[in-house]
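Schema walkthrough. Field components (list of strings):
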Amino acid sequence: MATVTLAQVSKMYDGGVRAVDAIDLAINHGEFCVLVGPSGCGKSTTLRMIAGLEEITDGVLEIDGARVNDLPAKDRDIAFVFQNYALYPHLTVAQNVAFGLEQRRAHGNPLRAMLTGQRDARGRESAHIAQRVREVSSTLGLDELLTRYPRELSGGQRQRVAVGRAIARNPKVFLFDEPLSNLDARLRLETRTQLRLLHRRLSATIVYVTHDQEEAMTLADRLVVMHQGRVQQNSTAQIAYETPANRFVAAFIGTPPMNLIDGHFAHGTFESHGVSLPLPARWPSLINQSKPCALGFRPDRARIERATAHDGAHSVSAGAKINARVVAVERLGDRTDIAMEVARESAMNGGQTRLVARVNADEAEHMREGDEVRVLVDTAHVHLFEPGECGARITAS
Amino acid sequence: MKRRLLADSILWFVLIVGTVMFVFPLWWMTVVSLETPQRAEAAITGSAGIALYPPNPQVANYAQAIRETGSTPWMGFVDALSNSIVITVVVVLATVLSSSLVGYALARLRFRGSRAMFLVMLATMMLPGQVTMIPLFLLFREFGWIDTILPLVVPAFFGNAFFIFMYRQFIAQIPESLVEAARIDGLGHLAIWWRIILPLCRPVTAICAVFTFIGTWNDFLAPLIYLHSDEQATLAVALNGFKNQYGGLEDVHLLMALSVLTMIPCIVLFIAAQKAFVEGLASGAVKG
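Field assembly_structure (string):
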C-alpha cells in the first residue's frame, strides 16, 4: 500500500509534442484509480512515467511521499501488467511468476553463496520463493498451469499469469495498462469482476489505464478522465456521470453518450434550430444574459411520445419538448435506444442535431424508423456547458 | 490429377538430380579414400573408370593418413585437430556473443549516431576480403601476432557485420514490453541481453553458430597466411601439406581419407542443428 502523487507532471517528446501537460493527481492508500480517455490522451504515458519506463520532463512524482523522478523502474517497488502481458516466452508459468523474486533475492548467485558459506540463507530464500509462487498460483487458480509455457496458454490464462507475476512481489503500487483489451467480451466482464475482488483482498494501490469508459466506471474508486494530456475531471465515477466537469467528460462518460445541442441561452430559454426549451431558473449567473452555450442531457432522462396529427408543427411551445424524427431503433432487450434527428424549420447551418433516448422496451415497442416523435426532456437534469470541445459546465444552483 | 502427377514427377526428378550432384563427390571421395594407392591414383588421373564402390576396401588408409599428418607421426594430426577445435570453438562463441550483443544495442538502445554506425557497419559487408587482407596482415605483424592463433580468433570478439544485421532484425521484432517487464523486474541491459534476448534468439544463434563453425573449420586461407609453423597448423592447412609433401598424386587415397575425417564434424553439426536451422530461416521469412 502506498500513495502516489503527481504534481505538475509533464511529458514532452522530442519534436515538442506535449503528451502530458502539467497534471496534478493524488492517489490514496489502497485506492483503485482509473485513468480513462480516448487514445492519445496521455493516460498510458502518465502510467509509464509512474512506472519509470518514461522519463518525466517536468514536475514531481512521489510514491509514499518520497520523490522518485530519478529512481529507476526496478527501485520504485511497482508492478506493471502490460496490455500484451509480456510473459517471458522461454520460461514456464512458475518461472515467470518467480522471476521478479529471483532477481531481488540477496543471495542470487549459487556459486558465491557456496563460497561465502551462505548456502543455508540461499536455501531459505529458494523455499520462500517456491512458497510464494504456490500462494499466488492458488489465489489465481494457476496450479494446473505452472509447468506450461506461455505459448500453451489461452488469452485469459496468460492474463492471469501476468497478474500473478505482478502480485508475487507484493509491490507498493500496481500499474495496469489496458490489461483486458486483448480478451473477448465475456472474458473481459469476468476478469473485471475478479480484478475488483483481488483489489479488495490485497487492498493495494492500483493505477489502471483503459480507454473503455464502462470498464473504468465499474472498477474505479477514483475516476480520472484525461484528454489532450490534461486531466478533465478527477472524482468518483458517479460524480463524473452525474455532474461532468465539462462538455468533453459529458460526451465521453456514459453509454450512449450525453445528448449535446449547440445553441443559445437567453431569458431563461435555450434556443437552437428546431429546439426551444424554457428552463427553470437554475442558472443564476445567466439571468438577464444572452450567450452561446450547449445543452446536455442523458439519454435516460428523455421520454418519447408519438407526435399526433392534431398538434401539428405549431404547438412546439408545450414545455420542454423537442420535435424529432426517428432514424434508428436499437433494441437491447429490456431497454431500447432510439436515435433521432431534430426536426427544423429550415435547413440552415450544417449538420443535423442528433439525439438518443434510452427508454423501456415496452414504450418503444411500436417505434419505427421514420416516425415523427416528441422528445420530453426532464429539465431538472439538464446541463449547460460553455461553448467549445472542453467547455466547462455552467454551475447551476 | 494427371497434371498433379506430372508436377510431382518433375519435382522429384529435379530433387534426385540435385541430390546426386551434391552427394556423388562426397561418396566418390569416400570410395577413393578406401582404395589401394594404385587404384586411387588411376581413378584421379582418369586412366581407370569411376568406381562406385571400392572392390577391396583399405580401412588401414585412415590410420596411415592420421599417422602421416604433419611432420611427427600421430602427434601432427593431434596438433592440427586440437588447433582446429580450439580456434573454431572460440570463434563460434565469440561471434555469437559479440554479434548478438551489438545487435541488441543497435535494435534496442537509442544513442546518438546509432543509425550512422549501423549503416557504416552494413557498408563493411561490401568490402571484399582481398582488399583488407594485406593491411590486416601488416597490422597483426605489427602486433607481433604472426604464427599465433590471435589473428584468427580476436576479430571474432568484435562481431560479424552480417550476423549483427541478422540479430538486429530479429531482436527488433521482439516486443518492447518484454524488455520493459525485465527492467521492472530489476534487470540491467547486460542481464536483459543474456537472460531474455539471447534465449529468444535461438533460431538466429543456430544459423550464426553453424555458418561460423563451417566457415572457420574449413577456412584455409587465413590459417595459411598467419600460421607458419607445423605445430600451429589447422586441419585444413595440414590437409594441404599432405598433398605437397610428396608432390604428385601417389598419396591421394590418404588425402581423401583425411578429407573425409575433416568433414565429419560439419556433417554431424548440420544434422544436429537442422531443426533449429530450418526454423530460423523460416521464421525470418514469415515474421520479417
